[in-house]
Amino acid sequence: MTTHPALDAEQQNLDRAYTLLGDDAPVDQPLVFGRIDDHSGSRYVGRQPVAAGSGNVAVVAWHDPAAGPFYETSATDLGTAQLKRILTVSGRQVIALHDEIADGSAFDVTSSQANRPMVGKVVVAALEQFRTGTIGDATATLRPEQYRIIREPAAGVLVVQGGPGTGKTVTALHRAAWLAANDEEVRAGGVLVVTPTVALRSYVANVLPCLGFDAVTADVASLYDGDASLRGRDTATETARVKGSAVMAVVLRRLVESQDGPSTPENLLRTLLGRPALLDRLADDLLKAGQQEALRREPAPSVAAEPWTVDDLVLLDELAHLLGRQAPTYRHAVVDEAQNLSPMQARAVARRCRSVTLAGDLGFSTGPGKHDSWAELTSYFAAESREATLTLGYRVPRPVVELSRRQLPDGASALTVPGSLRDGLGNPLVRRVDPDDVVPVALSAADAAAGTGFKVGVVVAAHRYDATMRYCSASGLKVGDGRDGDLGLPVTLLPADMTNGLEFDAVALVAPDEIADGTELGRRRLYVAMTRCTQSLAIFHSEPMPAGLEHLDRKPSPAREPEVEHRPKPAATDDLFELFNLLRDDDRMLVEVMIRRLLRDSLERND
Ligand SMILES: Nc1ncnc2c1ncn2[C@@H]1O[C@H](COP(=O)(O)OP(=O)(O)OP(=O)(O)O)[C@@H](O)[C@H]1O
Questions:
Q1: 146-224+328-393: which CATH topology?
Q2: I need a labelling partner for 180 at 20 to 30 A (CA). Which of 225, 294, 299, 605 fits?
């Protein structure tokens, strides 16, 4: 039962549209999410079209150009719109309306205070209300600057850049869906979506269905479709850097040309990495002695046993190409977190597509190499390139933006530090504990947050990952293995070099000093890890804080939990769970840690 006449009217319109669609109506997503009334009349915007008939208002699909005015108008650019309404629909029920434009005027615009973006409050409210936080939700509230990028023609290279959480992924994926719906060649030739990590591939694969189109997804390592598969990691940054560098294309070409008989990419690469004299002969003028040394690896007993790394697989892909193997091709590709592409990786993507959208920010590359300009990457694609920039932050709460920006070099561009639309849950929580307790305390805090319905990411330095996973299994904690792309559980564990592109309600950071590692690359990784949350960030440490966060050592921010007097009065209860929930955050953490330690000790005694 609804109470507001406007809600009732919208409900009746929606009911009529559902009746007309019958069994063809979408079951897992609302049919409509917006309405625009302008000089060409009224129409709803939604997932699929419903033609206007007697008594019903037409529904146009979001990717239909007829939905354009819904996206092109905003509280600051009214056009001819009389009404721009965002509808929140749950099941088949209209539960809320937010009018960004009503009676031809902006209904509710936030003031343009310094660092407060000019966006209707209604949009912010719509962002927060009844949303699952997936990219599909953003379809309802795409902003004009995003929409313009989405509608750019497919041809050439389009770079979509912007700081963390500005909607680069949202925009690039909507663009691919838009092209698939409106460009015959793209529909026929297909779209490939490439991510740097398995974790991000899994995230993207989960959100694609809500955009209503099919694309092939691949992480960089899985582009190569030969005998070898990912088994190892280049732990030395220099090794990954050399393997990814452009000169390797020349070295591999020389390698293939130096062969007499037939060979496989796997055997060629094993030979090259295992024979210093051969490498020196082929790369003497291209790689310094130290760089050659960084490549050196004793061949494993068999191809299957070789610890193939991401960058090895990219080299194998180049070799396969040189040996005449054809990789599958697509009309368009989207590369997310493209700043992390090495030159060799860019070549592998370029071989597979005729046009490409590169989404990323050069300022926070977390790969082994760093590019100073997009031209360094776009030059691998045989096409004209152009750049578009997003500056409004949709994900990261303001206090977290403020704290994380301290990881960036002085004078970091506005691009890298976006304005933020969200307040989140206030200041980050900082806890200093004993070294042995850092992981248990962080995990129990994550568990507690997950118990309140949050999706939580726990981020540790890469070298801590395996031990932390073992600790979770030993203490019976169910935690998703983020390194393998397992993002389905309430709590996901991630190494700090794999958080790019991901998003959680809450993030628990373990030992930021280890993540920052005193290096520029480490600080970028810390920055990226901090900017993964939509609501809250908690930092757990035992050692002094790394550069940029030292102020938290001396004067830790108070926990955001209110003081005891604001809490509900304890009821007389003997229910342990209820009693436990009445504790303050800090006490609850403490009790949890004690229980977990007791459990761990008893497990160890039983071993
Ligand atoms: N117009 C929008 N309306 C509502 N939500 C949006 C909008 N644009 C982006 N978002 C949301 O903001 C969050 C961040 O978006 P997205 O992941 O695309 O940003 P990004 O720039 O790729 O971030 P990063 O590079 O840090 O991973 C997501 O939850 C996304 O759904």
A1: Rossmann fold (3.40.50)
A2: 225
